[in-house]
């Protein structure tokens, strides 16, 4: 009430105490009414980007509305953005902060050294003998083959070592180790481009698109977990991400992927029913990524056996459907390092069907078969780009040839 109203009511004989009580009730009711009214800067803001995307993209998981990239100014209609201080405060409480990517492989090298891998130790032990006989060279060859280096690369390495030992007369352990390291690094090939291609693309109409990364592999390789860990790698590099749960046959796959994404504020596009068309989900994920302007769309696919023609044909369909909306930036094949030569057979078939551009090796720290790195690169002609070296959420690291060899030789 203004001052004139107060003056009039007091002059009319109404007690001042009664007026104060009435004023307090009125103010309280106004506050309650204001609290019950939807705020243009609060709850509505969280749903506005979803409404904006729904006009050009299919329905997605409710988690899309809470992604940090979709809360940013410009994600929805002009002016509909959560205030920076409020959004960041909420995210700081709810979200994990992934470990920095730089130096991950170096920090994890010790796990490879402690994994019991006998490759480096056995090679050094044989090469340090006073006089190398044919039996010694046979032992070296057997050691390399057992480590899944492969027949071709093993022959190349043995020939190079024979030449160096004979010409240089190597006997001193330090010199032997240096030569072995040099030859192993050359075999792993540090010249290969192991960076992920995450440059934005363009659709047929020339409109910008996110970098689309398709992740494939057989059952049991840790594919969905790898997608979740890769999302953390990208978030650690300040990239915005959308996940596509195109593994619609395994009931828990979408839930698992959504849990990984929610920990770092990454939304997941998924079907509302099991057994849905995985190509449709992948398409929806890419379209949602385009609508929200994210940097990368990661698409998880169902595990499939390389000898099942129907499943592999379906993978080809997923690839074709995605490329109608945006070009594929990467096709990553997830391989279990413990599978050895069977992993090579998988790599060969997936390479033919999906056009694999890079390998992700999981469980590398728990195997004596580190030579699979060399063999699979020779088989596919594409590099190992990422490796899993543990069970932690940030135990996925960019592969580095020299660091890997040093880990083998320290074992």
From TrEMBL:
<feature type="binding site">
    <location>
        <begin position="362"/>
        <end position="365"/>
    </location>
    <ligand>
        <name>GTP</name>
    </ligand>
</feature>
<dbReference type="Pfam" id="PF02881">
    <property type="entry name" value="SRP54_N"/>
</dbReference>
<feature type="domain" description="SRP54-type proteins GTP-binding">
    <location>
        <begin position="383"/>
        <end position="396"/>
    </location>
</feature>
<dbReference type="Pfam" id="PF00448">
    <property type="entry name" value="SRP54"/>
</dbReference>
<feature type="region of interest" description="Disordered">
    <location>
        <begin position="29"/>
        <end position="81"/>
    </location>
</feature>
<keyword id="KW-0812">Transmembrane</keyword>
<comment type="subunit">
    <text>Part of the signal recognition particle protein translocation system, which is composed of SRP and FtsY.</text>
</comment>
<keyword id="KW-1133">Transmembrane helix</keyword>
<dbReference type="InterPro" id="IPR004390">
    <property type="entry name" value="SR_rcpt_FtsY"/>
</dbReference>
<feature type="transmembrane region" description="Helical">
    <location>
        <begin position="6"/>
        <end position="27"/>
    </location>
</feature>
<protein>
    <recommendedName>
        <fullName>Signal recognition particle receptor FtsY</fullName>
        <ecNumber>3.6.5.4</ecNumber>
    </recommendedName>
</protein>
<comment type="similarity">
    <text>Belongs to the GTP-binding SRP family. FtsY subfamily.</text>
</comment>
<dbReference type="InterPro" id="IPR027417">
    <property type="entry name" value="P-loop_NTPase"/>
</dbReference>
<feature type="compositionally biased region" description="Low complexity">
    <location>
        <begin position="47"/>
        <end position="68"/>
    </location>
</feature>
<feature type="binding site">
    <location>
        <begin position="300"/>
        <end position="304"/>
    </location>
    <ligand>
        <name>GTP</name>
    </ligand>
</feature>
<dbReference type="InterPro" id="IPR036225">
    <property type="entry name" value="SRP/SRP_N"/>
</dbReference>
<keyword id="KW-0547">Nucleotide-binding</keyword>
<keyword id="KW-0675">Receptor</keyword>
<comment type="function">
    <text>Involved in targeting and insertion of nascent membrane proteins into the cytoplasmic membrane. Acts as a receptor for the complex formed by the signal recognition particle (SRP) and the ribosome-nascent chain (RNC).</text>
</comment>
<dbReference type="InterPro" id="IPR042101">
    <property type="entry name" value="SRP54_N_sf"/>
</dbReference>
<dbReference type="InterPro" id="IPR013822">
    <property type="entry name" value="Signal_recog_particl_SRP54_hlx"/>
</dbReference>
<dbReference type="InterPro" id="IPR003593">
    <property type="entry name" value="AAA+_ATPase"/>
</dbReference>
<keyword id="KW-0963">Cytoplasm</keyword>
<keyword id="KW-1003">Cell membrane</keyword>
<feature type="binding site">
    <location>
        <begin position="217"/>
        <end position="224"/>
    </location>
    <ligand>
        <name>GTP</name>
    </ligand>
</feature>
<keyword id="KW-0342">GTP-binding</keyword>
<keyword id="KW-0472">Membrane</keyword>
<keyword id="KW-0378">Hydrolase</keyword>
<dbReference type="InterPro" id="IPR000897">
    <property type="entry name" value="SRP54_GTPase_dom"/>
</dbReference>
